[in-house]
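agent: user wants the full assembly modeled, not chains individually. Plan: 1) parse entity lines 2) check alphabet per entity 3) run joint structure prediction 4) return tokens. Steps 1-2 passed, two entities, 843 residues total. Proceeding.
--- entities ---
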Amino acid sequence: MQEERLAIHLRERPSRLKEAKNKGVKIIGYFPGNYMPEELIYASGAVPLCLINGGESRPAEAALSIVPQVICPFARAQIGERLLGENPYYSMIDMLVAPITCQHLKKVAEVWEYNGDLEIFKLGIPHQHNNDFELAYFTDRLRVLKDRLQAFTGNEITDEKIYEAIGLYNRMRELLRKISLLRRTSPSPLSALDFVKLNNASFYADPVFMVDFLDSVYHELKDKQQVAKTDAPRILLIGPNIGYGDNKILELVEAAGGDIVIEEICEGIRYYWNKIESKGDLIESLARGYLVDRVPCAFMRYSTRQRFDFALKLIKDFAVSGVIWYELLCCETYDAESYFFSQKMGERNIPVLILESDYGTVDTGQLKTRIEAFIEILRGVME
Amino acid sequence: MIELLKLCGYSEQEIESELPRVEKAFDKLGITVEDIERGKQRLTKYYDVGLKGVRKSLRLVLRELVDALLARDEGKKVIYGFMAPGFDLLSSALVTKSKDVCSVHHSWAFQIVVGCIFGKIVPILEEAERRWLKAGMVAHCANLKTLVGPMSLGIYPKPDLLVTAGLLCETSPKTLDLYRELYGIPVWYVDACQDRTREEYPEPSMRVASSAAKSLKRLAERIQEEVGFEITDDMLLEVQDAKGKLGEAFNRIRDLITSSAPLPLSPAHENIWMCLNVLALSIDGIAEATEAVNTLYEELQEKVAKGLGVVEKEAPRVLATLPMGQTDPRLEYLACEVGIAIVATDRNLEVSIKGTSEDPYMRFGIGMQIGAMHMPPAMRIPLIVEGCKKLNIDGVLDRYHVGCRAVAGDAMLIESAINKELGIPVMLLEWENFDPRVYKHEEYKKRLEIFKTIMVNRSS
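--- prediction returned ---
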């Protein structure tokens, strides 16, 4: 019943947005990675829309007429979606805010900038924040973005509106966190596929609806009768990206009898471990919350140790017995980091399986075999 | 060995005093007698070592490599930079002030000597591929492999500080992060956000310049802690002024090359100048480099006056994207053999700006934004198009370094823009600037011949 409610909302969402657009509401897209405070867009009266479609090879291949294959499939998919013009979300945006994170998404922003058919705001993300001026830089850029959004939408962004937006998104993050924490029990009350779909949906759905919906889901899951214990190995999924629709690995793991109980993903999963402070200078709060008070993505400087320690914490908290490292082809930063993770996890006798995908189907058989073998290994370790 | 050193511009007296050091350094590199023979052959084949200016330039490159390899043995503080614009500025100030510090860019001299001269870079790359820079479709940057390979093989001593910049990539900072975690090597990053917009072009973004300047200043402070003395603004300004003169000398050569037919010098030499520009030269060393380049200029003037060149006078004029092959001069040599005159690269295309700053760090922050290669396509491509018009270019060799997402991502847009706006032929070539394994002689020869035919037919 809950699933159906979300499905209906998402099915109707494009037409609802078009209606809003016809009434003068601006739709503002942004790229994932959780470095763009969507609270600012929301506070401007515009609709924030995180562009996260991925998993299908067609858009990624369409982009090959513009960029080479070394640009990752997710980034190419963003270019391809706009080229193909079939996805309503990608066609309806009035403006793009492009957080400059990895080189791949930076290139997407640059290609769109070059094409010149869309207003673009490049949001510089300092790749470190050890020095005082880096946080100040990000804060300043958010202030400029605020001004730009005000001019673009014609709406004043007051502190009250930002406060309200922070409250709304904090509630969403809190609910996702609470739902995620329910997965510490064995068996997990919802599958990774369901959780990822839920999390992915939070980027497209109306945030007020989403909060209400997540609240219902949380209470339903909390009260759910636990079924008999399972011997499914509990798995941590790490990687750069899970786009909306990139379900192949999740499905293969589930079919092989594995249970992904927690994810540590940069793009495509809403970051929900921390809340944004809603006191003092709210722009500063947003800057700090999105840049500093979080586990960094792999492209950030000095991030490897912090990321590894966080993974260890997740492994402990969620009683994980193995790690699947899922990266997209040509994601050089995560690929380099996987060497460190697999070596250091190995020293702790935590098995790691590294998988790559380019959204194609030719590797499905091989992936299936490797995942099945990995699950068998985990079962052996558990015995 | 002595003959090789002579080809690299070492004087008799210098050979006598330096030979033991060079032998020791070559021993670390695993250079054999056979390698030296091959090195001599490659030097005479790919470089115009008959020109004193080329030999003098090569000498400075080899000297830096030897100094870097022996730095620890000679009791010096060792600081390496890798892909770190601005680092060479600090390095020059450091080595001018103290003989006890070796502060060098890790890879440029190494790539020319081990790659271009001796043709021995592949085992280095393979070593890196056994670490975290695996081979295959992921296309890790082979430039980075020339950092990881020698460090893993113990060719280079472990540094006291390892520096890189995240101005154009994340993969180099990630590698340093892994060095920090796996081997306990202290690391530092120079950063600036890459968020300059089309509206800010052509003037540099003061926001970005200021951010880069602050970041470089923090690096200077960190290095001061390491070396125990101050790097003053005056020291940096002195270096910048000296480098300004070196830059003028390079520009004179480039102007001569682009305005001469036949092409007086193979484009393979371009890398030696690029390397000279980032070597950790003291003020005296920069003067030596300037003198070497000026000597070459005079020699080239003579060649031009005599109508001598490396291709025929009517050879089609080509602009290439990216610098020349950093570890392998064969593509540039082949282009000349086929009869194509690569007269410029987009690395040399710069936008004119209103002015610079009195602050050496801001000068750096501004300067790093004027070159085409550091620009997003909305700025880089118009510069290339204008460059082609200005230089009367017949075709573009649009090669892209597959290991670098920042530049590779522009290649097809460049091709499309050149076709649309200029209608001249474009040869799109996926390659790796730092990996000789991508060189496929027959394929490249055939493609370059066809490219030439199209250009010739079009102009006739």
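agent: reporting back. Strands of chain B lie at 77-82, 101-105, 161-165, 187-190, 317-320, 341-345, 395-401, 426-431. Chain B has 19 helices and eight strands.
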